[in-house]
Amino acid sequence: MSTTVTETPTSVSPLKVKIQPTSTDESPQSTLGGHGVVHITSQNATPFQNADLPPGVAMDPELARKSEEKFDNVPFSRPFSPKQPIAEDAAESSARTGGLHTPTQLPESATSAVLEPSEAGHARRWIKVPKGWYAKKGAEVMDGLRVGDALGKGCQGGVYKLVDKDGNVDPTRVLKAKHRYALLVKVKREWEIGRCIANLYEPDSSLPGYMATGEGVVTENGNFIGMILEKIDGKQPSKRLNESSFNDIHYVEELLFCVFNALDIGQKSLGFHHADLRVSNVMEVKTTSTQGAPQLEETDVAGRAAALSFNGENVGKNAAKRLNQFKIIDYGLADFTEHYPSGNVHVGGPTHAVPKTGPLHFSIGQLQMSLPVPLSLEQLKGLPKINPLERMYRHFWRNKGDIYHVCWDLTRYLDGRVWPKEDEKQVKLLFAFIHHCTGVRLKAWFAPKSTADKDGKLKIPRRYGNFAFVQHYDGFLHVLRIRSIRLQAWFRPHNPGITAAEALCAPFFEACLHKGEDAV
């Protein structure tokens, strides 16, 4: 298929090139990787975006020099850009992908089993309760299920177990409901967003890295007071990361890879933006692993993480299963934007933010992810309006994406720690990625493992230095350094608008992408 290339004037940044078919010639060289739209970055390009610029578009030498200085003393195996695919003819491509996947049908389920394979993520009906009903222990909810003990409570609402008449706890569902006199507005919005995320559901698999949302709980007079959520049998990674003896870089690798993969799917398919993605808003699914990171099958050719194709899609065996090791929760501040699925994130502004406006378009490669066709913005505009307090919070975090938010939050857990000497390369690669995104440099020490270590806490046979009480994680003034780092990252970030697909191309994930290839 030959193409006609039309360019916008060179004064516009970034350049956008639309590829329009003009004939039926099936030339692999003319498909440009199968994408319908190619974004060519201008001289403001960063290493994450289009490293191989086309003729006539050159990288600014001064910016290139600064970009290299950001990652000094860090070994790179390849640039921050996806690998290009090997050309294949149409017949081979069709045989490999089976053609484009059709949208997943969303049944109007009458059941409440959120995790049932035939109904997972698609229960649509409302649960009606009497007027004046509120969540108290013993109150009947549905189908013989009653409110059980509280799993957690806040000032506005709580999460409760569901039990049957014999006192048996429901293993798959919990109830999230507001208190009797609480003025909780965002519950209905969170439920609506959870139902939109349910469009990522695919038969015979679970939601890819997201907590499933079931029915909404409504009183007879129409007041929305709660919802049914998937019960996640696990724990918060923040508790483990907060331990003073923590030094497992592979656990951080698995956490970030699972979360970024889930974000990549949500951004491409829905334009999903969590807006409050801290480590505390991620849950680790319970596993049987004794090594810290979730257990994976030995037959997995990609090793400990899913492989990515050239455009950031998940490939390889058991990819969907791996993505459920960590799950994103709490959609109360989430929203949808047309900029993520369009691929229009660039460094055009002073804060490298996503653009204010941009076209909505999807490439063929993105539709081959065996996921539903992305929802239109018209379908997402029916969400409840944002209240003034949340609007102020969103303004505070404007122009900062979910990847930045995760890295910003990780700084307080990872700075000033002692890591195993054998993991020095991976730690430096992670810190280089965090620096690329947030603009701050974290401190680290390295020491060999020893039988003399207590509770897994590594010790260095030399003094930390004159400022250990500030720089070391256990230093009594380390909290001041963390506050300084977080303020610097907030006011002077480098790339806060980075997308999940771009983040997954960082060298930090290079090892897990290729681990296990020798066994194929």
Automatic annotation (TrEMBL):
Region Disordered: start-end pairs: 1-36, 69-112
Biased composition (Low complexity): 1-14
GO MF annotations, alphabetized: ATP binding; protein kinase activity
UniProt feature, compositional bias: Polar residues: 20-32, 102-112
Matching InterPro entries: Kinase-like_dom_sf, Prot_kinase_dom
Gene3D superfamilies referenced in this protein's UniProt entry, alphabetically: Transferase(Phosphotransferase) domain 1 (1.10.510.10)
Residue span(s) of domain Protein kinase: 145-509
Name of this protein: Protein kinase domain-containing protein
Lineage: Eukaryota, Viridiplantae, Chlorophyta, core chlorophytes, Trebouxiophyceae
